[in-house]
Amino acid sequence: MAAAATPVPPRNSLFGARLREAGWGYAFVAVPMAVFGLFFIYPFGYALYISFFHWGILGKQPGTGSIGFHNYHQVINDHVFRTAIKNTLEYTAGVLPLEMAMGLLMALVVNQSIRGQKFWRAAFYFPSLASSVAITTIALYLAASDGLINRVFGTTTPWFTTASTATWAIVVLNAWTTSGTVMLFYLAALQSIPTDVYEAASVDNTSTWRTFWRITFPLLRPAHFFVLVVFGIGALKVFDQQYLASGGTGGPNYSTYTAVLYIYREAFQAFDFGMAAAAGTVIFIGIFVLTVVQRLTVGRGEAA
Amino acid sequence: MRRVAAILVVAALALVAVIVATAQAGTKTTTVTLAGWSAGADEDQLLQSIVNTFEKTHPGIKVDYSVINGDYTTAMTARFAAHNPPDVFYVDSSLASTWASQGVLQPLNSYIKSSKFDTSKFYPSLLGAFTVGKSIYGFPKDWSPLAMEINKGMLGAAHATVPKNWAQLRAAAQKIQAAGVLPSGAKPICLSADWARMLPFVFQNGGSLANITSPAAVAAVNFYVGLIKSGLANTPDKLGSGWCGEALGKQKAAIIFEGNWLLPFMASTYPGIQYGVFPMVSQKTGGNLAFTVSYSLAKDSKNKQAAWTLLSWLTGQKGQTLWMSKGLALPSRTDVKAIGGRKNFLIAAKYAHGWGFPHFATAYTIMNNDLSAVITGGKTVQQMLSDAAAAMKG
Amino acid sequence: MATAAASSQPYIPGRARSELIRKGIAYGALVVIAAIFFVPFLWSIITSFKTLPDSVNVTLIPHPWTTAAWREVWSQYHFGTYIKNSLFLAVVVTSCNMFLAGLGGYAFARLRFPGRELLFLLVLGTLMVPDQLRLIPVFVMLTNWHLIASFKGYILINLVTATNLFFMRQYFLTIPKDFEEAAKLDGAGYFKTFWRVMLPLALPAIAALTILQFQGTWNDFFWPLILFGQGSPHLYTIQLGLAEFTITYQTSWPDLMAGSVIAILPILAIFVAFQRYFIAGQVSAGVKG
Q: In the list A211, A224, B319, C12, which could disulfide-bond A201, CB 3.0-4.6 Å?
């Protein structure tokens, strides 16, 4: 880009420049917002609408009109729903810190120029590669009452099908498979930290721990916010593993019943789409509130 | 002269073209879509070959058979909602009344009348599973009840006899346990924490779903759960298995209660195990469940007449005979023979109740979760049964 | 373990040996961890060479050893076609995503337009809608537009995801404004700035998202099943193909394992290929130069 012989003349007015910037801004986000609008926001609006009706597979049940908040009452007073929410929150509280800590740790480790760096990266990321169905099937096999894990520890508990251990087994499983993905995000984020920062720290003879805690960790704030929100929401929406481990029942004794399993069952087993939509809306509101809280705490002060 | 000849030739050609066109219009082929889940490559191929036979004998109809290799119910629900379902498809008996009430299944009564189809050949309990009031929503394509399968080696080594009732069942289990023929971690009996396996015992004691809190039902559940609590039985997951069939294969159980689907599984995965198929035990009376699937017609089908032709042929005497040739299931018609070795399944027909009940999905989830709680001691039998009664009422 | 610091440390007696012990323990732990992470994969490979009755035994050596599963998977189950389909979808969806997420992420991070924060909240909101809840409306829509039973509908709904856009935004936020100002002084317009300056700077982020999106599309089972996985075996992806082996009461383990190994190799290759873009110092080099 050759410099002009004379400086570029200033724009006509600040307003014109702002208008141009806004125009380009809208242009850039147009296609993404269209996709999100059509395939996420509209369906959610649709769900919101049908939550006020008795809604079957083919639509409104003939001869009925709006039933107000009836579905919502049913959902909130359903002890199964309450158990599902409790299980989901417990699961999230367990898996999220674990994933983040493991992911960050692994990212820091493989970010160093250690021998076989590329190999370690692949090794840590490996469990994340397989599809969730494949990995869960393997995990169920390994954790069977006479499986490898029990043989190593001399126990006989079927970890995924015992009420008291099922949630924690899934926490461990998902932390194991998802930490690789978290690692990838942190690894990318670490690349944007200029190396002179580290050079300055080493000139001052700052310890590794101090360097990390006082410099690296705060600089990763946009990544922290991202990981918290995306993986937090992901944890709150967990479904596959509980579905596979319990054969779709959410058992034993409701221990693997999650929020999304409730929606799934209402929609695709009981075919009561009004109820499913009400449950979905309640869950959405819950996740939304939690995310706003995260935005106000961790995500503060990062807007350009 | 030549000009006249040319005109005549053109006219003749035109006439021929018109004749050919109308002839083709008369033999236009209809395409009927057929969908189901997969129960193994063998089954899929068998059905495809049966469909090919149908096409040969029905030149105006082409059949597009596809397998849904995943969540069948979810995929079908989406298709129903979009008013774009397959014309003919499988319906499990537990779902039949729900889908009928949702309005996605075509009642077959008018077609039965107009083609004079003889429905009396179907076992009444099986056809009844797909009948709501007077409307028939599908024909059963096959079925299987539960039977008792026992590891012959372990039974013989323990000098135990094949049990016929509950007391004998307990005695046989005790003998097997005392004889020390079980590997470590194994139990004499494998019992699933599943109403689809426990319900027959309720029927055997004279209980019923309509009156599920009766003393007969309580006693039956107590017997079932009692076997586990007394150490004579265990659930499959405690035996390192996903289901009792696997437990039998891994020799973690000597006695199990499973249906006809066990046989292909054992033959392909655990061919070395010597086991026998015996009739289900009985108590006050015989009691069993009929697991059955129908071919049904979609309400939104665009080719109902052709679809009906396919459906009635598949569940007719000819079609079903072809289907039975590999022994993957039992015939739902009295005029079709099963392949050999299925006697002890077939004699259960008299006492088999169709599997399914009102508000199936919601109730089944509650009933099974409660049963697992009863087994581990978190709930009482009475609590579970009253929960079940409430759930089935809706 | 910072390499830059090593040369400037003063010599302290005994440090070398304790350093060695620390490194030894660290490597030992890494090996154990890697072993744990790899064991299931090894078991899969071993099982793929067994016969079905033998596959249920917990043995390390197949007995008898057979390649029947591999041959079956390739010829009888058309895995070649499935790989082709999965590859096509993964490449198309990933490329679209990288471009659109980059564009949108840059706009949300650096361009000012009214309603930006609200729109971004909507973007985050899409993350909160479970697939199960939006399945029916989306499916009905696509059916009415005749985008079912082909790849079109699937590609359309996956053109860009909130996760990708969100991450690009976060990444762009960490890049110093000097670059854009320099570009502006050079007279570059908004798109040129994005395409020539910002996107190259975001290479580590693009690399991470490429790996993840490719893998996500590759491993996707639910939407392909619903949108084109019925009645169109020529359109099957690898995951739909694998589902042919997992049937209740009849799982065919050796075939499943052979298929799973085939399924995992391409995404492992993508990971290895793209991870070299995780290079620190891109940004600082740019500032200095």
A: A211
Q: How close, in Å, is residue B214 to chain A by CA atoms?
A: 23
**Measured between CB atoms, does B322 come within 8 Å of chain C?**
no
Q: Which residues, 6 or more positions from A146, have their beta carbon under 8 angstroms from its beta carbon? A: A156, B185, B239, B240, B252
Cα B199 to chain centroid distance, Å, stands at 16
Q: Are residues C86 and C155 in the same domain?
A: yes
Asked whether the beta carbons of residue A131 and residue C221 sit closer than 8 angstroms, the reply is yes
B313 vs B173: CA distance, rounded Å: 46
Q: Which amino acid is at C156?
A: L
pLDDT-wise least confident of B265-269, C29-33, C95-99:
C29-33
Class of CATH domain B146-289+358-393: alpha beta
ipTM of this complex prediction, to 2 decimal places: 0.86
Residue-wise pLDDT tens digits, C74-99: 888 889 999 999 999 999 999 999 99
Of the candidates B244, B299, B297, the one whose C-alpha atom is nearest the C-alpha of residue B275 is: B244
Tell me if residue C180 falls in helix, strand or coil. Answer: helix
Running DSSP on this structure, what letter comes out for residue A176? H
Of C130, C173, C283, the CB nearest to A304: C173
Could you tell me if C28 and C97 lie in one domain?
no
Residue appearing with tokens 């539960």: B146
- Chains sharing 3 or more CB pairs under 8 A with chain C: A, B
Looking at the DSSP bridge assignments, the partners of residue B150 are: B255, B276
Instruction: With residue B141 as reference, give the H or E element that holds it.
Output: strand B139-144
CA distances from B345 to B144, B327, C149 (A): 7, 12, 41
Token pair recorded at residue A190: 């670490």
Structural domain including C264 reads 72-285
Question: Is the bond into A158 cis (omega within 30 degrees of 0)?
Answer: no
The total domain count for chain C is 2
Phi, psi angles (nearest 5°) of residue B86: -65, 160
Average model confidence (pLDDT) for chain C? Answer: 86
CATH number assigned to the domain comprising residue C252: 1.10.3720.10
Q: Which of helix, strand or coil describes residue B214?
A: coil
Residues C22 and C163 in one domain: no
Pick from A57, A140, A162: CB nearest B77: A57
The domain B30-144+290-352 having CATH identifier 1.10.760.10: the answer here is no
The sign of the dihedral angle between the CA atoms of C239, A136, C208, C111 is positive
Give the per-residue pLDDT at A5. 56
> Looking at the complex, does the CB of residue A158 fall below 8 Å from at least one CB of chain B?
yes
